[in-house]
Amino acid sequence: MVHNVDVPRLSAGSVKLHTRQFGTSLKMSSMTSEEYKKSVMQAKEHILAGDILHIVLSQRFERRTFADPFEVYRALRIVNPSPYISYLQARGCILVASSPEILTRVKRREIVNRPLAGTVRRGRTEEEDNMLGNELLMMRKSVPKAYNLVELGPNDVGKISKPGSVKVEKLMDVER
Question: Which range marks the domain in which residue 175 is found?
């Protein structure tokens, strides 16, 4: 695993995209509010029954825009400089994605699972950056979430790995 790699530090900026041509309201969601609430209740039932340990419920929102997808990608690189950002154009589909976490990487025969348990803005100085990192480690919400993710990661990876080969190398590590 690679940690504390010296990468160029990019600060967030701002970009003006002409996305409001059709108004600011969302035009379509993948489910109604009632359907989402029903999904939450079903998820709780599955957790209580022991069928699943963890679930992330989400829904898709869409709105019409004439913004160029590659310009959206370029804008994301400026306003949210992320180490994991991608632009994929295939027949009938364009994907623009940005994430601060690696989540899972497979390289050769090694699987790295590194989800984020919390985030905080970067400091303006190295001292402020370290202070914010220490505060993140102490946040009551981040600590239980980190332990939950550490429990889930080896459980998931262990299903396809050699017995005894899964190990947690670092716990509660602040990545910059």
Answer: 102-176
Biggest CA pair distance of the chain: 56
Whether 41 is covered by a domain: the verdict is: no
Backbone conformation region of residue 86, classed left if phi is above 0, alpha if psi is from -120 to 50, else beta:
beta
Cα–Cα distances in angstroms (integers) from residue 80 to residues 14, 48, 169, in the given order: 9, 37, 28
In a domain? residue 74:
no
- pLDDT by residue (tens digit) across 142-156? 667 777 777 777 788
For the chain, give the percent of residues with pLDDT over 90: 13
Provide DSSP, 104-129: EEEETTEEEEE--S---PPPSSHHHH
- 153: closest CA among 168, 143, 140? 168
